[in-house]
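name: query_chain
kind: protein
chains: 1
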Amino acid sequence: MRFERTVIPGVGLCQRFATAHGQWASVISHPGGRRDIVIYHPEDGDTALCTLVLEQPEAQAVAGVLNQAVTVDHLAELERQLPGVTVVRIPVAVDSIGDGKRWRDTALSGRPLSLLAVVRAGRVVPTPGDDYVLLAGDEVVVAGAEAATTTAVDVFAGH
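structure:
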C-alpha cells in the first residue's frame, strides 16, 4: 500500500491511500491529536463522501484495534512459516493458576514456550516480559511446542 503524504498548512498532515479494492481514503492528523478519516467518492477521488472525526483517545482506540488485528494476522503467518511451532491465544480464566501472577511465576516457567503478547481490554501489549502480571480477562498469546501450548491452555483455562 502506498501513502501520499501532504502537509496542509494550518491543518496538519494528510496521508491519502487506496485500498486493494480501489477505494480512496485519507487520514488527516491534526497537531492536537485529532484524526479525520475521509472517504472519497469511488468515481471522483477529489470528492469526500464522509469524514469521521476522532478525538485523540478515540483514534488511539481504533489504532489499537487495527494493530491487534494485524498482530493476530502476523502470528498466524508466523505459525505457517515455522513448522513445529504452535501459536495460540488463550483467555485467562478467573481463579486460574495465571490470574494475578507474573508470567515467570506461572506453572509454565521452564517449558519450551514464549509469551508473545497479552491482549488486555482490547489493547495489545507486545512482548510483555517475565514480570508482567496477568489478570483474569486477559488473553495471552504464546508460541512453542504443541505439548507446551496445550499445557498453557490448561493452566489459563483453570483446568
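note: The mean pLDDT is 84.
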